[in-house]
Specification:
By secondary structure, the protein is an alpha/beta fold. The protein contains eleven helices and 13 strands. Helix content is 36%, strand content 16%. The longest helix has 22 residues.
C-alpha cells in the first residue's frame, strides 16, 4: 500500500499540511446536505448516480451522458483501467501513484518518463515525454497541475499531447483534480476538446476543493459512450453512497465558495512563498493549493516534535529524501509551520 498524506489517525492533534485539503473547510450547504442524507441511509444509493451526474454536468458545462461518478477519483481511475485493460501505458514521474498501481493491477507494461528536471532543461523534458507516445502505447496519464510537483502545463502542450495520442490510438487521461484551485483554470482545462476527441478522458474530484476526502467522491468526463458503458459494467452498482451523492449535488452548486477559495489560497500561498524564501529551501512548483520544495533530509520527522505534519515525497517514483509538499492552510496555521521550520532549519527558538 502506498504511503499518502493525511495520516491524522497516527498523529492526532497535529496540524496537517500533508494533505491538500481546502483550509476553508466544508461549505455549510454541503454539511447540511450530508446531515439530511442520514435520513435516507435505509435506502440503496441511486445506481449510476443519475441525479449527481446531471448536477455535475451543469457545473462543468457538459452533457450528463459525458459524466461518470465514482468513490473518489482513484475509483474512477481504476474503473477506467479495468474497462480498457491497456497493454502498455505511459506516465510521467513523479506523479500521482495510483496511475501506476491501477495499470499494474491489469498486468499493463508501464513506461515511465522522469520529468523532474532543472528549470533550464524543462523544454527538453517536455519533448521527451511527447516523443514517447508511439503506436504501441494504449494509455497515457497526465496530471495538471501535477501532484506532487505543483507544475501547471499550458493548454497548448496538452493539445499537442492529445493529438499525438489520437494519432497513436492511445487514450489520454488528464487528471484535473487540482485545477479548480487555479485562477486561470478555464484557459487550461481540456474540457473544450471532449466532444472532438473521444480518446480524451478527464478525471476530477470533490475531495480537495470541498474538503470532503472522508466521503470519497470523484468523477470522469468523456464523450466516448462505449467507454463509459464498459466502465459501468466493471463498476459496483452502488459505488457512490447516498451521503456522497447528496454532498456532491450540494457542492456542485457552490460556485461562490470555489471563487472565495481561490482568492484565499492565492493570498495565503503568496504569504507562504515570501516567507519560505527566507529559509534554506528550494521552491519548485506551487500552481495549486500546495507548494513543492526541497530542503534538508529528515525535515518531516523534526517537524513532528512541533505537532506539524508535512508530506515526505521520497516514496514518489523519481524522487528521493529531501523533497516535500505542504498544503496551503490558514494564516495562523501557516505561521505555526514557519515557526517550526525556522526552529529546524535556522535553530530559532519557538515562542
Amino acid at each position: 500500500m502506498h504511503k499518502h498524506g493525511g495520516d491524522i489517525y497516527s498523529h492526532p492533534n497535529f496540524i496537517d499540511f500533508s494533505a491538500n485539503i481546502n483550509f476553508l473547510g466544508v461549505p455549510e450547504a454541503v454539511k447540511k446536505a450530508t446531515q439530511s442524507a442520514l435520513q435516507e441511509i435505509t435506502h440503496y444509493p441511486q445506481p449510476g448516480s443519475v441525479r449527481l451526474c446531471q448536477t455535475v454536468a451543469e457545473m462543468e458545462h457538459v452533457t450528463p451522458e459525458q459524466v461518470i461518478c465514482g468513490n473518489g477519483a482513484a475509483d474512477v481511475i481504476f474503473s477506467l483501467v479495468l474497462a480498457e485493460k491497456p497493454k502498455k501505458a505511459l506516465i510521467p514521474a513523479p506523479t500521482f501513484q495510483e496511475y501506476e498501481q491501477s495499470l499494474l493491477s491489469v498486468d499493463c507494461q508501464v513506461e515511465v518518463v522522469n520529468t523532474l528536471k532543472e528549470k533550464t532543461s524543462e523544454i527538453v523534458s517536455e519533448e521527451s515525454f511527447l516523443d514517447k507516445v508511439m503506436d504501441d502505447i494504449d494509455m497515457v496519464f497526465f496530471c495538471n497541475p501535477n501532484n506532487p510537483t505543483g507544475l501547471l502545463k499550458e493548454r497548448e502542450y496538452l493539445l499537442r499531447l492529445l493529438q499525438k495520442c489520437e494519432k497513436a490510438g492511445a487514450r489520454l487521461v488528464v487528471d484535473e483534480c487540482f485545477l479548480d484551485f487555479v485562477s486561470e483554470a478555464e484557459d487550461v482545462t481540456m474540457k473544450p476538446f471532449l466532444e472532438k476527441y473521444k480518446c480524451l478522458f478527464l478525471v476530477k474530484a470533490f475531495t480537495k476543493m470541498f474538503a470532503i476526502p472522508g466521503i470519497r467522491l470523484g468523477y470522469g468526463l468523456s464523450s466516448d459512450k462505449s467507454l463509459l458503458e464498459k466502465m459501468k459494467q466493471v463498476t459496483q452498482p452502488w459505488n457512490v453512497s447516498v451521503i456522497a451523492q447528496e454532498a456532491g449535488m450540494a457542492a456542485a452548486k457552490e460556485l461562490g465558495f470555489m471563487e472565495r477559495t481561490r482568492e484565499a489560497v492565492a493570498e495565503e500561498k503568496g504569504y507562504l512563498l515570501e516567507e519560505l524564501k527566507q529559509l534554506p529551501v528550494e521552491i519548485y512548483g506551487h500552481a495549486a493549493n500546495f507548494i513543492f520544495f526541497k530542503a534538508e533530509k529528515g525535515l518531516e520527522k523534526k517537524l513532528e516534535q512541533y505537532h506539524i505534519l508535512i508530506r515526505d515525497c521520497s516514496n514518489f517514483r523519481g524522487l528521493e529524501e529531501g523533497w516535500y509538499r505542504i498544503a496551503v492552510r490558514s494564516r495562523t496555521e501557516n505561521q505555526t509551520l514557519l515557526q517550526g521550520m525556522r526552529a529546524v532549519l535556522l535553530a530559532e527558538k519557538v515562542l
